């Protein structure tokens, strides 16, 4: 009997150890992006396509003020309210003291410099597909932005979601760096924009009870994470716009019926309007290639 | 007695809710009509800007004038307090409009300014319409970003 108990205790200890090991934060190695030098001009395009300012600018910031990434916007969800942090180059309140490898770990692995898991309200689940060079360029560009000394606010997340370790388990279940859709070479740019930088799937794909994306319904529309209304489907069963219609919407904010973009998508259009016509066409071509769910 | 009073109060509440809901039908229809008139005329100008519809100064100006006409409608009449998405059916107007009425009106005035520019552009030529459309789109977007609830 005592022997069985000992055995059980040993198994339990092993199971806990294995669990801790599996759910550990896995940053990139310190030399992951060594040898890459960032180019800020291209980084600005990455920054715009990735929509960084749309969430990290101060609430209701307009125009050039949107480039001061002081944080503070609130994002309600089923798991609590996430508050975007200060990611300006301020060395104390922002991320000015980070190394490129630390930045890359946060953006593409969801791991903070302190070795904690970040909440996937920050779309590292999409940014994981970013190229190393784009990460380095983005970092170079962000150094050129104004610093803000506004302190980041803690997320308003209750038990058990406030245990960051649990995100290790979430990542085991849902964090993938593979592309979602197989595409021919001419659609690769569009796929890179949709699946990586512009992180369209974060809102347009429904999530399961644990907050993981339901990839069988990729971009097939979803309840609004804020709890009110829906995010429209982009799949051909629901969206019958032409590629030109989609590109024009991303440029002007006008639907084919000349209704206008609203809500958070207005910020997305504001960003896409600053990208090249080729990039908007690439996104449109990818969207037109989506299968019906 | 108490019961009767409670029942009467309930009936009175229901009746007043119904009355209120009906009161908002006209302004909500008028608001949505405004948006439809804007959309139809922007469609004509957008078709010209994209080269899908032939440009004529008459057709372009008629569309631009219609847009300006809508922007001259006094908005307060169409936005009685309580006619928001929480208080009324069939509208996506957020309650924030009434909390920030000055900002809302400033955004409506910005549409008016962009519409006036479209009038000039429509009279100028086909190539002037696209940029003017961009400004109107900016005005639409800034208001819908803040004050229109997502679709259901």
Automatic annotation (TrEMBL), chain A:
Keywords: Heme, Iron, Metal-binding. It comes from the Bacteria. Residues 38-146, 185-291 form the Cytochrome c domain. This is Cytochrome c. It comes from Mesobacterium hydrothermale.
Automatic annotation (TrEMBL), chain B:
Residues 1-21 form the signal peptide. It comes from the Bacteria. Keywords: Electron transport, Heme, Iron, Metal-binding, Signal, Transport. Gene3D superfamilies: Cytochrome c/b562. InterPro entries: Cyt_c/b562, Cyt_c_II, Cyt_c_prime, Cyt_c_prime_subgr. Pfam families: Cytochrom_C_2. This is Cytochrome c. It comes from Mesobacterium hydrothermale. The lineage of its organism: Bacteria, Pseudomonadati, Pseudomonadota, Alphaproteobacteria, Rhodobacterales.
